[in-house]
Design a protein that fits this description.
Residues 145-243 form the OmpR/PhoB-type domain. Residues 21-135 form the Response regulatory domain. The protein is an alpha/beta fold. It has helices spanning 29-41, 52-62, 78-87, 103-112, 124-146, 173-183, 192-200, 210-222, and strands at residues 21-25, 45-49, 66-70, 94-98, 116-119, 148-150, 153-156, 161-164, 167-170, 189-191, 231-234, 238-241. The strands form 3 sheets. It has a 5-stranded parallel β-sheet with strand order 2-1-3-4-5, with helices on both faces. Strands 6-7-8-9 form a 4-stranded antiparallel β-sheet, with helices on both faces. Strand 8 and strand 9 form a beta hairpin. The chain starts with 20 loop residues before the first strand and ends in a 6-residue tail after the last strand.
């Protein structure tokens, strides 16, 4: 198997300053070196492995951000590596390389847990573009996983913003801390004292209206488009995030 890099790697998208780690796994030294060199030129941190067992060892110790993985290798082939990683719930993006361009081969690779598929011989700029795409999708998936959602409300902790339906929302630091606490305990009645301690760090006493004021701020923002109430008062106790009655 030989890879055929194009004359110049694509440079349309620059990798981020903190270089993602790419593990290149191929039993052919020439292919492994060509791919590793091309990725390194683009600014990625690259390591190589010559077989599946070495690849699994590198994944465990180096924790790469993506794998470029040949299928046909001695000791442990690429599909077996995919299956082992997925069985361990390792979601590292994997680009599979193979010399066999049949539907059944592509299906086998995807079923084993590969995220993308590239047939040898390939242009190096296409491989780099596919690696970039895998990293973008992984980053988007991680960002989506960090979001908090309830009913039609979605909140992004990284930006203290969100949306309800299609309507954008922005929150102050205290508003967000209060809403996050409610979102982490949907349907659960949170006593007033607990909320004050978690959000403000102390209980202001029964005469303070600080919590009621911020609940009012939240409700105005969450209901500004005429949406039904999500933050409910439980009289004498505290507040609860719950779906509107009848929803």
């Amino acid at each position: 198997m030989t890879a055929h890099p194009s004359a110049a790697p694509a440079t349309g998208d620059s990798p981020p300053a903190a270089a993602p780690r790419i593990l290149v796994v191929d039993d052919e030294p020439e292919v492994r070196a060509a791919v590793a060199d091309g990725l390194a030129v683009e600014g990625y941190a690259v390591r190589g492995a010559a077989d599946g067992l070495a690849a699994l060892s590198e994944v465990a110790t180096w924790q790469p951000d993506a794998l470029v993985l040949d299928v046909m290798m001695p000791v442990l082939d690429g599909l077996a590596v995919c299956r082992r990683l997925r069985a361990l719930d390792d979601r590292t993006p994997i680009l599979v390389l193979t010399a066999l361009d049949s539907v059944s081969e592509r299906v086998d690779g995807l079923d084993a847990g590969a995220d993308d598929y590239l047939v040898k011989p390939f242009a190096l700029d296409e491989l780099i573009a596919r690696v970039r795409a895998l990293l973008r999708r992984a980053a988007a998936s991680a960002a989506a996983d960090s979001r908090l959602a309830f009913a039609d409300l979605v909140v992004d902790p990284a930006t203290r913003s969100g949306h309800r339906g299609g309507r954008p929302l922005e929150f102050s630091r205290t508003e967000y801390a209060l809403l996050e606490l409610l979102l982490q305990h949907p349907g659960q009645v949170l006593p007033r004292e607990t909320i004050l301690e978690r959000v403000w760090g102390r209980d202001f006493g029964p005469d303070s209206n600080s919590l009621a004021v911020y609940i009012g701020y939240l409700r105005r923002k969450l209901e500004a488009g005429g949406e039904p109430r999500l933050v409910h008062t439980v009289h004498g106790i505290g507040y609860r995030l719950d779906r509107p009655e009848g929803a």
